[in-house]
Amino acid sequence: MNASSSPPRDSFCFIAQSRWSRGIFFGDNPFSSNTSVLLAQLTLCALTTAVLNRGLAYLGQSLFVSQILAGLILGPSVLGSNAVIRELLFPVSSFYTVDTFRFFGVMFYLFIVGVKMDLSLIQKSGKKAVVIGICTFSIPLLLNLMISRLITMYVAMQPSLYSSMIWIVSFQALSSFHVIVCLLADLRLMNSELGKLATSSSMISGSCSFIWALIVFAGEHGLHVEQETFIIMLLWSGMMVMFAICIFRPMIQWMINHTTDVDSVKESYICVILILVLGSALYGEYLGQHFTFGPIVLGMVIPDGPPLGSALVNKLECFVSSIFLPIFFVVSAARIDFSMISLRSFAIIEGLAVCAFFWKVVGVMLPSLSWKMTAIDGLHLALVLSNQGMVEVLILEQAKSLRLIDEESYSIMVLSIFGLTGILCPIVKFSYKPSKRYMMGERMTIKYTNPNAEIRMLACVHYQEHTPSIINLFEASYPHPEAPISFIVVHLIELAGRSAPVLMPHHPGMRNPSPSNESNPIINALRYFEHENEGYVAVYPYTSISPYNSIHNDICLLAIEKRVSLVIVLFHKHPLIHVSEDETKAIRNVNNNIIRESPSSVGILVDRGTMTHTSTLLRTSVYRIGMIFLGGPDDREALAYACRMGKHPNIRITLIRFLDGSVVTAVSRQMVIDLNTINAYRDAQMTNKQWFYQEELIKDSLGLITVIRSMESCFDLIIVGRQHRDHSPLLAGLHDWNEFPELGCVGDMLVSLDSNCKASVLVVQQPSTLR
């Protein structure tokens, strides 16, 4: 029998409860009805899991650890040991109802997992990922089988454990693609080099594990039925797969062809898909297959990502993951009874679990080292791929229902997965820092680039409305035959409807140039700009679809690979874009991560309208740019970029240098460098009639504010460094009123709410390794 229909070993008699309660005002006990008890259980499980995850996330723990811990707390070993609480919230009469709901949640959760899977990753995986994935599964399985054979020969154990040994070893070698991807998302490593390799490798090892589990369960079914019956079962299961490929997939493709974006997906499409999911689960039940077989197959044939895949995930994932799924873990962990675990069995199974972990580390590190990975990166990859989670617990429950493993072994193995995951996640989170590679200390800046050589700039856009601002800034950078510029533009899209992140280049002639229709207008505008400046402008568009909390890794890696001198990000507020507060905060966090970890200089562009109009620089006779200089590495980098702009025939640059006139101070090394920089650029621009220089002698921050306020209406664009000379009296007190620290105190002053400045602002900073 399958998991959803197998009865407990013991039978209980209980008084049937009513389906609903009239309420306390009619004298009824709300917990006397099945409905009230179920609602209380769902609420308590979801709340406990959310609270634990909120606290344990700071310790580097994954959501899976919080879910299992919630089950242990609410189970018979902790709160459930109190008879009053147990009878009130988890009476025996509620078990069948709870089981129905938890399996219902698991069914839709695994359907979502199938929707988010990108099967093309198997084809795209390189040899390294394929070898690592196969070794991750096969080496622990083969070597642990040999060890278990030795243990059964020389160690006395209970008969039930003896008969389960081969299955215990088999299930300890399993791994799951979705578990690894969710772990990488929790650790914010999906876009790192480690995360991308782990994603591809886990797809291979997860496929091997899935096939092995199917073979085990199908073989067990075959032992209890006649051969002809077993063959018929396989044929009918094959029909389910053929239906998914030959009928369901074309139907889904027809829906996608009649849908423009995520918001336009018809409710009728969603309803039809969900009805077919329920029907496929029922079909599996009739065949004796696990009820999740059909939903997983249907989910896998639905294309991941927008529009349909994203719509399904958006509508189902939050409710299923936050409400239905916690009850699954609570019931699974609640079945763990520490009193029934013997020390000998615990030692044997845990010893095998440690061996399986060690063999997985070996299976990952051997091919990693052969591909010239560093030992520490190979170890971190092994620690990530050694994790197990919800999918493995579900397989163990199925194995227990088929009597492949006993209750005691099930409890020990779930505790083993819980303990190992709880140990490995914090180790990876606090020891692996992908940003270390970005901090190379190399001078990838405008200042240290030959002014007459090609430079490379990278720009990040979130919306189509950002495109005119970026193109105008590119034009202002003055690409010309003697100093061409390569522009890398990355369209950043939040990951939705798929598990694995995507970084897609859009080179001419590519078969699939865009994974998202949103990128097409941006790419077309950039191609037109490239065509208009043919010969001295090269544009390389990309689309990055990733979680916002780790999408900056794509930007930093591209900056290193392409030897970028300046990374441009758009300020999270834009006059033409109105989005939700949550999305605005997410974009601001992305910008802050890039500012903090970029190996190149970073420019934060605040468009106040003067950069929005298409071809502004081509239509106007003079585009006025003001450069504020107070001193420091960031101001020197900003000045280097301003000087490059000053070569444009339609741009007039005014350099305003602020001098401290309050007291005579000792001349520092930074002040000498600032003076030499100013003198060098003044000498270089002596013959440029579009270049102006003025000095402002001020005594305090009030004088600084007054002068800056007087120049706000004089320019179309103001360039300023993010940070300035330390402990300058000209900036005293300004940091206390800084609303946007990413802009620095002067940049924040220019864009603050009480400012009447209509000019756009560009805030520049050097990499942190050079400041």
UniProtKB/TrEMBL annotation:
Residues 489-610 form the Cation/H(+) antiporter central domain. Residues 56-422 form the Cation/H+ exchanger transmembrane domain. It holds the Pfam family Na_H_Exchanger. GO terms for biological process: potassium ion transport; proton transmembrane transport; regulation of pH. It comes from the Eukaryota. One of its GO terms (cellular component) is endomembrane system. Residues 625-766 form the Cation/H(+) antiporter C-terminal domain. It is found in: Membrane. Its main location: membrane. The keyword Cytoplasm does not apply. The chain crosses the membrane at residues 31-52, 64-85, 100-117, 129-152, 164-185, 197-218, 230-248, 269-288, 308-331, 343-362, 410-432. Coiled coil: none annotated. It is a multi-pass membrane protein. GO terms for molecular function: antiporter activity. InterPro entries: Cation/H_exchanger_TM, CHX17_2nd, CHX17_C, CPA2_transporter, Na+/solute_symporter_sf. Keywords: Ion transport, Membrane, Potassium, Potassium transport, Transmembrane, Transmembrane helix, Transport. PANTHER family: CATION/H + ANTIPORTER, CATION_H+ EXCHANGER DOMAIN-CONTAINING PROTEIN. Belongs to the monovalent cation:proton antiporter 2 (CPA2) transporter (TC 2.A.37) family. CHX (TC 2.A.37.4) subfamily. This is Cation/H(+) antiporter 15. It comes from Sesamum indicum. The lineage of its organism: Eukaryota, Viridiplantae, Streptophyta, Embryophyta, Tracheophyta.
